[in-house]
Amino acid sequence: MTTRLIEGSSADIDAVMRVMGDAFDPAFGEAWTRSQCLGILGLPGVWLTIAYVGEEPGGFALSRLVADEAELLLIGVRSAFRRVGIATALIERTIQIAATGGAIRLHLEVRAGNSAINLYHKAGFTEIGRRKSYYRGADGQLYDALTLSMDLNFLKQ
């Protein structure tokens, strides 16, 4: 399988929503709506990277840069394309774009217990904070939000 990363725009919303519908478990309510995605894509400093496997959208990363801080807002990979390096490639591209844009730190937030936490730690993120009972699952259960961060200064040396 050949994977290629492209920089997307609001014109790619159908591909994003195809991934979104498959990548996020509805039990946790973490998926964004079409209008939420379109709304943020129009803001300055926001970028979208889409991973295509052949002609199929396999994953995406939505990020933003404000001053010298970047944030990975959302990342998703379709279940059929997991564990083949797409998420890692998307994170690496996000790091590259953030650093090139002048970011000295890259942040993200993730629900405690999300299996992606291992991926983020492997990529070099460390936990810097926790918001107690931040997320509410569809069943009403509350979950902490973990704030993770990565220093990007090492890329500038």
General description of the model:
This protein is an alpha+beta fold and 157 residues long. It is globular. It has one domain (3-156): Aminopeptidase (3-Layer(aba) Sandwich). It starts with a strand and ends in a 6-residue tail after the last strand. It has helices spanning 13-23, 34-41, 86-100, 116-123, and strands at 3-8, 46-53, 56-66, 69-77, 105-111, 126-136, 142-151. The mean pLDDT is 95. The chain has four helices and seven strands; from the N terminus they run βααβββαβαββ. Helices cover 27% and strands 39% of the residues. Strand 2 (46-53) and strand 3 (56-66) form a beta hairpin. It has a seven-stranded mixed sheet, sandwiched between helices.
What characteristics describe this protein?
single chain, 157 residues, alpha+beta, Aminopeptidase, seven-stranded mixed β-sheet, 4 helices, 7 strands
Task: Give a topology summary.
Layout: E1 3-8, H1 13-23, H2 34-41, E2 46-53, E3 56-66, E4 69-77, H3 86-100, E5 105-111, H4 116-123, E6 126-136, E7 142-151
Parallel strand pairs: 4-5
Antiparallel strand pairs: 1-2, 2-3, 3-4, 5-7, 6-7
